[in-house]
Amino acid sequence: MIDLGISKLALIGAVALIVIGPERLPKVARTVGALVGRAQRYISDVKAEVSREVELDELRKMRTEFETAARDVEQTIHKEVNDLNQEVKDQAQAVNDALSGNASGDGFDSSSPFGNSDGGFVPSWDAAHKSHNGRKSWRVKQGARPVWFKRQQGTRTWVQSGAARVKRHRPARGAARSFFE
């Protein structure tokens, strides 16, 4: 860039004073200052735009990398799920083959998976989650969950009123007084 010291600026100012004249010099100085300010703003805008484009290109590259990685993970998961599905189907087929080869004289009914021939209804998971109009039924869903699962998750199996809960967790009367004395 051009190196302008105080001596060079003073020389330029003196020449401008002689050439332009003292009455028009302030107006010209304001115009030159405005033009220099516009040029600086334009240059800074161009620099900012270039840096935004560079960042945008970097973000696009990162996005494509993430998308390819996500696709690879998705394909791996689908492959594993399909393999497990096939293995489960093979095992189920083996169990069905073993059950169909079983003699019917042992009291086990092979037509029912639960061994009862009375045709008892066992609700499916979907049936336990839907009510008669197709919406989810909370009560049916909660009733379909096994007790061991409720205990493991910390789900309350009985309803307790707020007053009973307060009474259960309130300290004994004598314990509170002796603590503060």
UniProtKB/TrEMBL annotation:
Q: How does it sit in the membrane?
A: Single-pass membrane protein
The superkingdom listed in its UniProt entry is Bacteria
Which residue intervals are annotated with compositional bias (Low complexity) in the record?
Answer: 105-121
Any matching Pfam family: TatA_B_E
Q: Where in the cell is it found?
A: Cell membrane; Membrane
The record's annotation in InterPro entries points to: TatA/B/E (IPR003369), TatB (IPR018448)
Compositional bias annotation for Basic residues? 130-139
What the record says about family reads:
Belongs to the TatB family.
Subunit details = The Tat system comprises two distinct complexes: a TatABC complex, containing multiple copies of TatA, TatB and TatC subunits, and a separate TatA complex, containing only TatA subunits. Substrates initially bind to the TatABC complex, which probably triggers association of the separate TatA complex to form the active translocon.
Q: What is this protein called?
A: Sec-independent protein translocase protein TatB
